[in-house]
Design a protein that fits this description.
- Pfam families: ABC_tran (PF00005).
- GO terms for molecular function: ATP binding; ATP hydrolysis activity.
- This is ABC transporter ATP-binding protein.
- The protein is of the alpha/beta class and 244 residues long.
- It has 2 domains: 1-75 and 152-244, P-loop containing nucleotide triphosphate hydrolases (Rossmann fold); 84-150, no CATH class.
- The protein has 9 helices and 10 strands.
- The strands form 2 sheets. A 6-stranded mixed sheet has the order 6-7-8-3-9-10, with helices on both faces.
- A hairpin with a 2-residue loop joins strand 4 (55-60) and strand 5.
- The longest helix is centred in the last third of the chain and has 16 residues, at 165-180.
- The mean pLDDT is 91.
- Bound molecules: adenosine-5'-triphosphate (ATP).
């Protein structure tokens, strides 16, 4: 479970994240939805300890990121916005390398790679060098790498960015599988349909603040709009940047 309280981050005069708070529960997919520049990536970066908040608190399975960042990292699998793979290594070698960084033994790494390659349907590419991989193949490899240590909490920054319809559907199935295994899944997107199709809980963020949260049905009821698109527009207060 991930709990965020009163997070704040400014870059000079730009306030990127302004007192953001929410809870991402286990066995649920939570979506952070907002237009470009809303503060999603900055929020996620503070969650996975890449960036220090100006103030506020991040708790992962009850562990405070400011007190025990290593403990938090151990419990997190992260697909960051920059996917950077080692292009001279194969998919398997990229994943294995991360497994070693986590201190896993070779047999455990082999077993995890087998499970992840099957779940992500990457058996046909896993022993190819990642140089020349398509966008979808790169994302799959980066996700497998992020999950090699079997984390209970999974954070993904725009996981379907650049994926075609088939790859997006496969990604959705995979995220549902993680959820059904009881993990906490938190991802960001600026695509409303994406979030509506996938999430149990939606946190809408605009101009660095949480402006509404709930299930799709709750958001419709809250805004008094029958159509989800209209509900989002109302919550955000502008149509700017909402569409894919
Ligand atoms: N390192 C930085 N230095 C200066 N400004 C930054 C930095 N990182 C983010 N910002 C600013 O903070 C605001 C929030 O950016 P952020 O990347 O978190 O938004 P986002 O919701 O992830 O947007 P997108 O959907 O476009 O990725 C933006 O105005 C952005 O320009």
């Amino acid at each position: 479970m991930i709990v965020v309280r009163d997070l704040h981050k400014a870059f000079g005069k730009v306030t990127a994240v302004d007192d953001v708070g929410f809870r991402a529960a286990d066995g649920r997919i939570t979506g952070l939805l907002g237009p470009n520049g809303a503060g999603k990536t900055t929020t996620l970066r503070m969650l996975y300890t890449l960036m220090r908040p100006d103030r506020g608190q991040v708790l992962v399975d009850g562990i405070d990121a400011a007190v025990d960042p290593t403990g938090v990292r151990r419990r997190l699998g992260v697909l960051p916005d920059a996917r950077g793979l080692y292009k001279r290594l194969t998919g398997r070698e990229n994943i294995r390398y991360f497994g070693r960084l986590h201190g896993l033994d070779e047999a455990t790494i082999d077993a995890r790679i087998a499970v992840l390659a099957k779940a992500l349907e990457m058996d046909d590419i896993i022993d190819r060098r990642t140089e020349g991989f398509s966008q979808g193949q790169r994302v799959k490899t980066a996700i497998a790498r992020a999950l090699v240590h079997d984390p209970r909490n999974v954070i993904l920054d725009e996981p379907t960015n650049g994926l075609d319809v088939m790859a997006t559907r496969a990604m959705r199935r995979f995220l549902h599988q993680l959820r059904d295994e009881g993990r906490c899944v938190l991802f960001s997107s600026h695509i409303m349909q994406e979030v509506a199709a996938l999430c149990d809980h939606i946190v809408i963020i605009a101009r660095g603040r949480v402006v509404a949260e709930g299930s799709a049905d709750e958001l419709r009821a809250m805004t008094g709009e029958a159509n989800l698109e209209d509900a989002f527009v109302k919550a955000i207060g502008t149509e700017e940047g909402l569409m894919a």
